[in-house]
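S., here's the first fold you wanted:
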Amino acid sequence: TAVNDSVDYDQQTSTITVSISSSSDSNYGSGIANQSVTATTKDDDTAGFTLSKNTATVIEGGDSDNFTVVLNSEPTQDVVLTLTANDPTEVSISSSSTLTFTSSDWNTAQTVIIGAADENLDDDNITSTVTAAISSSTDDEKYDNLTSQVVTVTTVDNDGTPQVTLTVDNS
């Protein structure tokens, strides 16, 4: 029977050998050859990571938003994800810009908090992205080449159209 774990080991092949170590029956003595069988264990774990959502909305000078990240299988080495905003003038990562998962906390979701930069520019709502990517400092080969994932962030503008008032001096 295969032992279920949470590590992505791929498919593994094992050899099981049965031999007679001792017998009081002379028909089953040392002259009987060992018997072997090859067993293949198919792994049900796949390295990857999951984002809780792929869209978020933040408001200049107001509400932030968040999403969580969790690994899909137990790593054999630490896995580090790097978080980057493609337009830091519109969206910021308020939590750490890296997440580290270990073999003891890989299945505990980590929260990423994103906020909006509050500038005084009437630039309407802006769409930008926050990318979660495996860092080059990750030593677990199953996680090394995973595809980056993106959260699309809408920054809601809180600046109104500037009003200009002209007064005429007829003096």
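And the second, which I think is the more interesting of the pair:
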Amino acid sequence: NPLYSHGAQLNTLNRNNNGGTSHTYLKYQKLYQFIFNEGQKMEHISFQKEFFITELSDIPTQKSFHDLKLNEIRKGAVQKRIDFFRQPFFDHFSVIIIAAGHYPKLYDFDMESIFNVEYKLDESFELGKGNWCNIHYESGKKKILIHTRQLSTNVFDKLLRKMAELIRPFI
């Protein structure tokens, strides 16, 4: 099933082909568990049953961030995705998470105009060591957009729990 392609993956870090998954998928799974399963760990990866995930850019950053040519290509890729995210398909999502760190600022990705939301400074927060969320709402609070760091290594459970608290009323 392409909508749930990793259902057989174990809810553990992949080491030596043990059937596990990546740091990022483990964080999405933990968020899923905080939202839908009271934080109880599940045996297999299951977040894809409820989450739709796509990327702002398919060019990896870790080794290419300082490559000027790749940065220009990356900026073009992010800009092309603006039209994609403006499609009516995304209007049906009551929860949007942009787990892309500073990509929106670096690559002129205006989340407010693209998703028709407004930034709420008084509800945004930082929990320390790069664990932060900027909160946006559609007028009437029918939709929440949470902008945060990439969900990979060094993400606090406290951040994921807080995100789950914010998300629950919208599902």
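Why I say that: The first helix runs from residue 23 to 36. Strands lie at 95-99, 118-128, 131-137, 144-148.

Talk tomorrow,
H.
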